[in-house]
Amino acid sequence: MPEADTADGRLDREEKYLEQIKRAMTDRNHTLLRETYDSMTEAVKNRRLNLIFLQEISYRIYYMLMDLIPGDRGEGVCLEALDWRNQTCFNRFEDWSRLLWEQIEGVFSHVEGQEERNQGITVKVIAYARQHFREPITLKEVAERFFISSSYLGRSFQKATGVPFKQYVNELRIEEAKRLLRQTDRLIYEIAEETGFAESKYFIARFTAMVGMSPMEYRKMSEKG
């Protein structure tokens, strides 16, 4: 029996297809997803891939699409709750494949349009963080203020700044703390409170981790310099 028809051969192909699907969905690579899905359907027709596996992949794609939709959960996009594991839901295999692909294209188009609209919001959130980092702000609270999903805002914020929201805020706080240590004689706990840290112990730990020395060591070094 050819290697392609062995159980091990099928397992290798299934793992390869699954990785390609995950990468295409994560990157929203329409071309790679289309090529991979077409290749899988052709493999099923040639009996080189189990139909049950393709049904399972379709089921996973459906829930990946759900995760791609921002907080509005489908405003402006229709995502049918089809049972991709149940082949009897469809008259023909081609109908099943077509319906899934229509949903993929609909969600991709919706998300791309939503991203364009939300680019301006991300810029506003960055400005808001710079103005309010001294306050106990969180990603969830900021997302609610700007009427956007916190998970989606987190992704778009990190894409724009290169760091997660919490890290960005902490970096702003530490930079302000460094300025206060250089230019004032305020006590450590006062600087911690003024820069948005709830506890001086946590402030010292974050400062040391990010600067490479404690706040007192930084102040002494600044005085010598």
From TrEMBL:
Q: Taxonomically, which superkingdom?
A: Bacteria
Keywords attached to this entry: DNA-binding, Transcription, Transcription regulation
| Keyword hit for DNA-binding | yes
Which GO molecular function terms does the record list? DNA-binding transcription factor activity; sequence-specific DNA binding
Pfam families reported for this sequence: HTH_18
Tell me where in this chain the HTH araC/xylS-type domain is found: 123-221
What InterPro entries does this protein map onto?
Answer: Homeodomain-like_sf, HTH_AraC, HTH_AraC-typ_CS, Tscrpt_reg_AraC-type_HTH
Which interval of the chain is the signal sequence? none
In its UniProt entry, what is this protein called? Melibiose operon regulatory protein
Q: Which organism is it from?
A: Acetatifactor muris
